What does this fold into?
Amino acid sequence: MTALYPGSFDPVTLGHLDVIARAAHVFDRVIVGVLHNPNKASGAFPVDTRLRLLGDAAAAYPNVAVAAYAGLLTEVVQEARADVVIRGLRGASDVEDELAMARLNRQLGRVETFFIAASPEVTHISATRVREIGRLGGSLRGLVPETIRARVEAALLS
Ligand code: PNS
It folds into this structure.
């Protein structure tokens, strides 16, 4: 079974990598899809940079692929030939919005969403906070994958 893990990944964090690693154990194939969130600004990292960072962060998982998509998630699921969508849940504040999105995607395109409960060590991490800390010169150790940390820190400071 192929799972599509959609998100902004601006940039990929250890929270995202937790979901990717665990999904890679459960599904035959995982496609990490960089998509535009219409409720967010255009983004800090260009899409090709996000793809490279994701590819490097997930390099240890041979059944994980990374790609960029545009448009409605229900159409992206078809284009990617995915069977299901996966999303991570950090806590109660994620639940309402994620359930609405899952229900809308089921109504729009019969797409089923599977949720992965984020590991407790990463539930406080968000890409928004990572960008904020990095832009102010803070260390991103323990917040983004170590293999890409220096690149993310340098890009956020420039
Ligand atoms: O990481 P994010 O920003 O929480 O991811 C949100 C994302 C990109 C998955 C969501 O905004 C999305 O699915 N965008 C594609 C457009 C779409 O289908 N919108 C309707 C969702 S019900």
